[in-house]
Amino acid sequence: MNGAGTEEDRLREQSITELLRRLSRETTLLVRQEVQLAQAELTAKGRVVGQSAGMFGAGTLLGLGAFGAITACIILALSLAMPPWLAALIVAVLYGVGAAVSVISGKRRLSEAGSPIPEQTAETLKEDVAWVKSRTTSETR
Q1: What is the 3-state secondary structure (H, E, C) of the chain?
Q2: Measuring CA to CA, which of 63, 88, 122, 129 is 20 to 30 A from 13?
Q3: By C-alpha distance, which of 106, 73, 71 is closest to 91?
């Protein structure tokens, strides 16, 4: 408590101009720190998103080749028992159902991923605002 009393005494001795300069300096420092925190948080999230996108791209390219080959194989096999147009129609309907299930599942997982907002930065900003409000309220008394 002795250190706090000394700090209060020093603040009381400073002029309004000095106090405003100090407030400006500390506010600028706080804003810079918050921006740096947001940048670090977004960089980390961006790195993961970038790597994931690369994996999706590679998987899509390989999957497309396999999909074309397996589609041709299924249609050729079914065309031994029915007209080729009917075999192709059956395969297309089955793929449509699979696509619908995939889209619905992907949409559900995306909603579970949460917000892209940098949560830690938002939380510290709320704390900073609360601290400033408490300081200005206690100083006006």
Answers
A1: CHHHHHHHHHHHHCCHHHHHHHHHHHHHHHHHHHHHHHHHHHHHHHHHHHHHHHHHHHHHHHHHHHHHHHHHHHHHHHCCCCCHHHHHHHHHHHHHHHHHHHHHHHHHHHHHCCCCCCHHHHHHHHHHHHHHHHHHHHHHC
A2: 129
A3: 71
